[in-house]
Amino acid sequence: MVWLTALSACSTLPGSNARLGPASNTLEASPTDRVWSGRFAIEGSPDLAPASGRFTLERYATRRRLDLLGPLGQVLARLDMSAEGARLTRADGQIELAEDANELMTRALGWRLPVTQMERWLDGEFALVTERASDGTPRSAIDSEWRIRIDPPRRWAFEWPVDSNPSPALMPERRVRVRLLLDP
Question: Which fold has domain 2-12+32-182?
Answer without folding.
Answer: outer membrane lipoprotein receptor (LolB), chain A (2.50.20)
